[in-house]
Amino acid sequence: MRLKKSFYIKTFGCLQNRADSERVKAFYWNRSFSEVKDWKKADLVIINSCVVRESAENRVYGLIDNIKKFDKKIKIVLTGCLAGLERAKILADKVEILPIKEISYEIKPLREDRETALIPISFGCDNFCSYCIVPYARGREKSRKEAEILKEVDEAIENNFKKVILIGQNVNSYAKGGFAKLLAKVAKRRVEKISFVSSNPWDFSDKLIAVIAKHKNIDRLIHLPLQSGDDEILKKMNRKYSAKQYLALVKKIREKIPEVEFSTDILIGFPGEDKKAFANTIGLCKKIGFKLAYLNKYSPRAGTVSAKLYKDDVSTEEKKRRWKVLDKLINKKLS
Ligand code: 5AD
Ligand code: SF4
Prior knowledge:
The chain has helices at residues 15-30, 54-70, 134-138, 146-158, 179-187, 206-214, 231-236, 243-256, 275-288, 305-309, 316-331, and strands at residues 6-11, 34-35, 44-49, 75-80, 96-97, 116-120, 122-123, 142-143, 163-167, 193-197, 221-223, 261-268, 292-297. It is α/β, with parallel strands linked by helices. It folds into 2 domains: 5-102, 3-Layer(aba) Sandwich (Rossmann fold); 116-331, tm_1862 like domain (pyruvate-formate lyase- activating enzyme). The strands form 4 sheets. The protein has a 5-stranded parallel beta sheet, with helices on both faces. A 3-stranded parallel beta sheet has the order 6-9-10, sandwiched between helices.
């Protein structure tokens, strides 16, 4: 007879979800569940979902259907970004919903990586970029208390972690301008490398630049989502900068920290992105010389402003073509 119940956890999406899963895992381990690596052998399947792109959301529905087809008795707990949306309600007879807000940060995470500790510092987002569903799924931005974060960093150091990644949808707006201070405090500790994701251009203060310049253990690869290099598109995206301002920020950071490199996110084929707008993105990317870019093809997300206001007017083929152009230019350095 098997006494111990088993769980399997599937994590979709970003680092925030990975960090949340480490806590969900700890929650079930603490309740004497054992973890299995094959969902077919589990009594309970936890799905930590992502909805940022249509393809990610569809993979969640696909997995739920597969599990239910295989064995109706397997219990499914749905958490992550889909759990925060109204439309998750249609899954009510198939899954139990665990809202992300109920994942307690008091629980000590069961970390997956032995070297790098993921440390959430804030949750949610107030930016409302017009294409993005995250503010609806995760709610308004809330910052975790500094003392709590530092305690988690110290515990990670005691447990021999060499690197930390501070994470949040918008880390540099932490505690209304308190990010530079927090980062400096973390950097003074015995950590080999500190990274942070994601930050946005409009909250990248001079104070933050000074802190990075001063502390050599802060990662010299900075992730700074660009999304587009065309001013009209940026405006429609509700991003709060122009191409010129983005470039000026990059120049300013490079002046203070000459060895810095940049990675970015680019959204390809946003409504109205014509050849000229795309050429502006290419032009800006060439000027900046990103080390790496995460390239996302636009898909309208029900509930967002851009899905409501604008027609998805760039064809799939054209999005693919533009994806290849940018991939070659930035990620393969072949131009
Ligand atoms: N379609 C495609 N990509 C998107 N992203 C956000 N919303 C969408 C969407 N509707 C991308 C952005 C963001 C990354 C996390 O996901 O580029 O930076
Ligand atoms: Fe989405 Fe923009 Fe918030 Fe990032 S900053 S999570 S792209 S709304």
